[in-house]
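Page 47, continued from p. 46.
Same chain as before, 488 aa.
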Amino acid sequence: MDDSRDPDGPRTTPDGTPDERLLGKDEMNLAEFPITLLADRKGVSIIVREVPTRDEQTGKMVLRKVTVSGSELYGLPSAQDNLILLGLIYLTKRANNFRERRVEFSRSEIIRVLGWPDSGQSYTRIELSLKRWANVFVLYENAWWEKPRQTYSSKGFGIIDDFEIHDGSAVRSSGALKSNIAWNEVFFQSLEAGFVRTIDLKLLLRLRYPSSQQMYRFLGKHFYHSPTLTLDLRTFACEHVGLDRGYKDNGKLKEKLQPAIEELEGIGFLEPMSREDRYAKVGPGQWTITLRRRADLELADDPIDAAPLSGPEPTEQEKALIERGVTPATAAELALAHPADRIAAKVEVFDWLVDRKDRRVSKNPAGYLAESIRKDYALPRGFESEAHRRERAAALEEQRRKVEEARRKAAEEQRARDDVDAARVRAYWDGLSAPGRERLQAEALASPALAFLVKRYRAQKDPEAAARSLRTILDGYILELLDAKASR
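Result:
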């Protein structure tokens, strides 16, 4: 029997077909307190997780605290960096069964493990992740479990001491020079000591939400002791899953946890429960959450179906991102971390840039779109959003409506004045005797103010047209008389 065979390597089922699982290892200190953000967040330079608890050995209350600081240049690690870290742990286990801190690999191997597209974007993302992990410092205060000593300790260390990236670009006589990393000694000692748990990476990678992935890791560790867990809601959500502590309302925490819970219910990991059974109020502003294991999928005897696992349908924001080339996992990460209106606005800008064949979206369109959401890029010169166009069109329409309304009102007022003037003229004319009308007509035809109209009247050949012209002259003259009388 060959004892060197990796028990977590490729498997076959009893009928000889390949097992669809990809069994890796999860370091359980990382499963307890996430040392990454759920999504990239601009302006966040430190992560703090802390839980007051009673020490089982001393019986005293202690504060277990984890503080993560990252590089200002590369930022704190996020959910995607977590996946890359698990991929590196998997490759280390496969390469030397945790016997050597330094492990060789190629980025294409990590890409295959994670199921990412073999593209420049994936290679660049892995390089960024290595830079982040090499610059991260994690301080555990009464929170780092040492398996050999069976006790918690306080330690500060990084995750990766150093790395080299070659991926076969340099060639020696012995062949291609591979990339490599050296794990930090403290972290590697935990791997070496076996404080790890077998985990199905394929199942983990099918989970769309980063919160689902972290919840799956934490619960998988604790369901080993009990199939039902009742935990403080805020502690579970913020310290163990990684939600933002800024959510002061317990209802908001429940809302943020719900997509992950539904996804884990959908794959058969969590037992579905009513909201009343899931949550219980235990004091002013204090709630608990109960989670019950339905099946330990990562250790199941039956192979996992290669078909996509069931779960909640992608949101409209996720669909819009996926349609534009963003991976489903990244789309879910972005939709969970950023407001829907920001995503919609950046998608609109992206489409505008694509229509204009802008160089910013020529090389890596999906990567640009994701980064524009994460970093909230400023609007490009010349861009006008659909909402702004609608507002501008609405403003122009309102202006046009007001002008038309003013014209209509002015016309109505003029007609009213004309009607009043016509009534005054008729009353004055009707009050004249025949001689008086003759005198008024003679005066009107001799009026200098009406000379132009009189000239046109005298030139008329058509009797009907001449009569209308005369009527206009007489009406105008009468109005002059009436207005002059009214002003005296």
